[in-house]
From TrEMBL:
Pfam families attached to this UniProt entry: NAD_binding_8
The protein's name in its UniProt record: Amine oxidase domain-containing protein
Membrane-spanning segments: none
Region (Disordered): 28-79
Length: 498
């Protein structure tokens, strides 16, 4: 098993980590030499005035020959994206970094938000772009359905804390009333209704009103972060020493550096023609699981045999369900009659078997998945087939790019020549904690790089060559510190089903 934060220093090193986290982390690594493949074309972006932006390919590139000629169009299939990635030129910014640099952060999930927050702490301005229609947060989604209201965390459910840097941050959120400890019982539920509670330590945390409100409030006290939402950045172009961003042809500003704080197909497409082949190559190595989510509201409490009212359970032995949680109890602390809002997630295997385009789920598939998952809930609870009361509200959603299954094991990736970095959960794990640490680390790394004025780029290359390793954890990610079933005192187990 890959250790969770292989590059985060042990506690004894944390004092220096706090003062300059990135430099401590990176001293333990040998910064890889910028290894541009021999076939990679290099484009120097100097910032000399030019009357009118030309395309990157024509700015400084060698004359097209039969060998280096770029194809006019690559389409968007995975295959064509890969092909294009290997052919693109490497951008080399050579102008000194401005005294008051501005960073574009593409993605407003936990990692992008933490990156923005920590850039501000280092005196660096940023703009966060995010596609979210309802708010920031990405995979920290919460759905509130009026007029009841029904509340569902429909991706991240809760988190634990293992890193002391993250612990400080969580203490601060607790003080501000942004997060709270989840006191409800959670455990492992085996097919047939055998429930084994997990020990109450380590503490589990949830957003006070769900995960999305937490994301939306993280930047509330900042003054150097601009948020642009909803906005889908579709193009990155280096020109005159700056990155030019656009959304379907609409200019979205010029920036001294860019941060890719999202992953998956969208990031592969964006990077495929950006002039960042090394970053694009690492992104493309990432593999992601797919998972179905079923949000369901019931008039009555779920008939949990044995009288235990657990609030969350990792479900074992059932393909269609890997996790179930009672949002009403978790978020509203309601012990009563009201509607009972549950989030159910499938296993990754079930997600793969039933994969469809997530933007366009066929009704028949949605119905089949809903029935399959509700059947799984029945089986998990040890209820007779067909006995589960129908929920009065359901919503089925596919997380097509749910969780990373491999990792390069580096807290962030940075290409100093291209002045571009990547942060995200997948760089060290598959949890909110890993996403937060990645964003914080990249921010500090970029701020350190800016302090040199970009003068010694070779010292700041990080993660560009790391090999990927498989990532372990639950289907819904990692919960550092949470005991695995093997370590639970079996004496605590009790049979719920009669
Ligand atoms: C079903 C599910 C359950 C989970 N449960 C838990 C859990 O209980 N505990 C836990 O710790 N973790 C959990 N996770 C994992 C956790 O949600 C992630 O690790 C974390 O949220 C990742 O944050 P991120 O910033 O790396 O990426 P994301 O949250 O994915 O953020 C990326 C953002 O970038 C935006 N974006 C993408 N492309 C563009 C573009 N071109 N322009 C602008 N914006 C763009 C996206 O819309 C998104 O908002 C779960 C994940 C899933 C899918």
């Amino acid at each position: 098993m890959v250790s969770l934060f292989p590059l985060v220093p042990p506690k004894t090193m944390l004092t220096s980590f706090h003062s300059s986290p990135s430099s401590t982390i990176f001293k333990t690594l040998k910064p890889p030499k910028p290894s541009l493949s021999p076939k990679t074309l290099i484009l120097t972006c100097t910032g000399k005035p030019s009357p009118k932006p030309k395309s990157r390919a024509t700015m400084n590139a060698p004359k097209p020959t039969s060998k280096n000629r770029r194809k006019p169009s690559y389409g968007t299939s995975r295959r064509s994206v890969i092909k294009k990635t290997f052919k693109q030129e490497q951008v080399m910014f050579t102008t000194p970094v401005s005294d008051d640099p501005l960073v574009a952060i593409i993605g407003g999930g936990m990692s992008g938000l933490m990156c923005a927050l920590n850039l501000e702490k280092r005196g660096v301005r940023s703009t966060v772009f995010d596609t979210g229609m309802h708010g920031l947060g990405g995979r920290m989604g919460t759905r509130i359905i009026d007029p009841h209201p029904l509340v569902f965390d429909h991706a991240a459910q809760f988190f634990t804390v293992s890193d002391s840097w993250f612990a400080e941050l969580v203490d601060c959120w607790l003080e501000k009333g942004l997060v709270q400890e989840w006191q409800g019982v959670i455990g492992e539920l085996d097919i047939g209704g055998r429930f084994v509670p997990l020990p109450s330590s380590p503490p589990r945390y949830v957003g006070v009103n769900g995960m999305r409100p937490l994301a939306d409030s993280l930047l509330s006290e900042t003054c150097m972060v601009n948020v642009v939402r909803p906005c889908w950045i579709s193009k990155l172009e280096p020109f005159n020493g700056m990155w030019h961003l656009s959304e379907n042809g609409k200019p979205r500003g010029e920036f001294d550096a860019v941060v890719i704080a999202h992953n998956g197909k969208c990031a592969n497409r964006l990077l495929a023609s950006s002039g960042l082949p090394l970053i694009a190559r690492q992104m493309k190595r990432l593999e992601l699981s797919s998972m179905w989510a079923l949000l369901a509201a019931f008039e009555d409490p779920l008939p949990i045999p044995g009288g235990t009212s657990f609030e969350g359970a990792f479900v074992k032995g059932i393909d269609s369900v890997s996790w179930m949680a009672n949002n009403t109890k978790k978020l509203l602390h309601s012990q009563s009659n009201g509607p009972h809002c549950w989030t159910f997630f499938s296993t990754a295997a079930y997600g793969k078997q039933n994969k469809v385009p997530q933007e366009n789920i066929p009704t028949a598939t949605a119905e089949r998945v809903k029935a399959g998952m509700l059947g799984g809930v029945e089986a998990a609870l040890g209820l007779p087939k067909g006995s589960l009361t129908k929920p009065f509200y359901t919503r089925v959603q596919l997380w097509g790019a749910a969780l990373p299954t491999n990792t390069p094991g580096t807290p962030c990736i940075f290409d100093p020549h291209g002045r571009a970095g990547i942060c995200g959960d997948w760089l060290v794990g598959s949890s909110l904690e890993s996403a937060a640490l990645s964003g914080m680390t990249l921010a500090n790394h970029i701020a350190d790089y800016f302090e040199t004025g970009g003068a010694r780029p070779e010292e700041f290359a990080i993660g560009l060559d790391n090999e990927f390793q498989p990532l372990e954890g639950h289907d819904i990610g990692q919960f550092p510190g949470l005991e695995s079933k093997k370590e639970i005192n079996e004496a605590q187990a009790y049979q719920l089903a009669s």
